[in-house]
Write a structure and sequence with these properties.
Layout (H helix, E strand, L loop, with lengths): L15 H20 L19 H12 L7 H26 L4
Keywords: Membrane, Transmembrane, Transmembrane helix
């Protein structure tokens, strides 16, 4: 006879592990923002010699419009996301502790 599989994972026994994880996210995010690794740099588009025509002109115009929203370094975006996520995790656990909730 097989045992039923629990649907939820058990909660961690230590309240320190989420804070440690959040601190790691903060540290990694800060390193990515400060180091700006070259691997995350987005290259500038190579311009063709002739003026594009037809579908190529439409594609070039679309690329130029979208490039405004694209990051110049992808690792900057990852670093910011890690900083926000790590800070939010630590704040959530701090508020849980103040509210008297236990994980």
């Amino acid at each position: 006879m097989s045992r039923p599989v629990p649907k939820d994972l058990p909660a961690p026994r230590s309240g320190v592990s989420p804070v440690t994880y959040g601190a790691g996210m903060l540290a990694l995010g800060a390193v990515l923002l400060l180091a700006k690794p070259r691997i995350g740099a987005v290259p500038e588009p190579v311009q063709a010699g002739d003026e594009p025509r037809g579908l190529r002109r439409l594609a070039a115009a679309a690329r130029d419009g979208v490039s405004v929203f694209a990051p110049t370094n992808v690792t900057d975006s990852l670093g910011r996301s890690l900083l926000i996520g790590g800070g939010a995790l630590i704040l959530a656990r701090a508020f849980d502790a103040l509210a008297g909730r236990r994980p």
